[in-house]
């Protein structure tokens, strides 16, 4: 019997959602530690401790260069930003608190948007 052709998953609107989510993250008042790559040369130990640095400008670059195939790949990189932050910063620190607030904000936003898929 004929194999059912798999309908190609339309990821184009998923990528549009990624752009909206990223814009929301960048506009957040607590985004400042995450907007650009950590200057690891001026942060002792950073390169040793954090194996996969990630930040919002790098995510934007990857989005622009079509390096995310879907929303899931994008969410993995956003979570990497927050996981790196938790690993390197005390919870009870300016940047540590900003990271927790940003993660809570992101989790709320993408689950709100998920209902449209
Ligand atoms: C997202 O920010 C990074 O976790 C680096 C945090 C940091 C940078 C310089 C310092 O003196 C302390 C922490």
Coarse shape: elongated
Beta percentage is under 5%
What is Rg?
A: 16 Å
Average of pLDDT: 93
Summarize the main sheet.
none
Distance between the termini: 31 Å
Order of helices and strands: HHHHH
Number of helices: 5
Query: Would you tell me the structural class of the helices and strands?
Result: mainly alpha
> Could you say which small molecules are bound to this protein?
4-[(3S)-3-hydroxy-3-methoxypropyl]phenol
Considering DSSP H and I runs of 4 or more, what fraction of the residues is helical? 55-70%
Number of strands: 0
Low-confidence spans: none
What features would you describe in this structure?
This protein is mostly helical and 117 residues long. α1 (12-27) runs antiparallel to α3 and α4 runs antiparallel to α5. The chain has helices at residues 12-27, 46-49, 56-64, 71-88, 94-114. The model has no long low-confidence stretch (mean pLDDT 93). Bound molecules: 4-[(3S)-3-hydroxy-3-methoxypropyl]phenol (5K3). Residues 33-34, 38, 43, 85, 88-89, 95 line the site of 4-[(3S)-3-hydroxy-3-methoxypropyl]phenol.
């Amino acid at each position: 019997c004929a194999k059912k052709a798999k309908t190609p998953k339309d990821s184009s609107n998923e990528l549009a959602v990624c752009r909206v989510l990223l814009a929301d993250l960048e506009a957040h008042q607590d985004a400042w530690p995450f907007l650009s790559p950590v200057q690891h040369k001026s942060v002792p130990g950073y390169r040793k401790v954090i194996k996969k640095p990630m930040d919002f400008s790098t995510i934007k670059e990857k989005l622009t260069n079509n390096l995310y195939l879907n929303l899931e790949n994008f969410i993995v990189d956003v979570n990497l930003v927050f996981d790196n932050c938790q690993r390197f910063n005390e919870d009870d620190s300016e940047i540590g608190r900003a990271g927790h607030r940003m993660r809570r904000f992101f989790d709320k936003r993408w689950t709100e948007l998920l209902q449209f898929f």
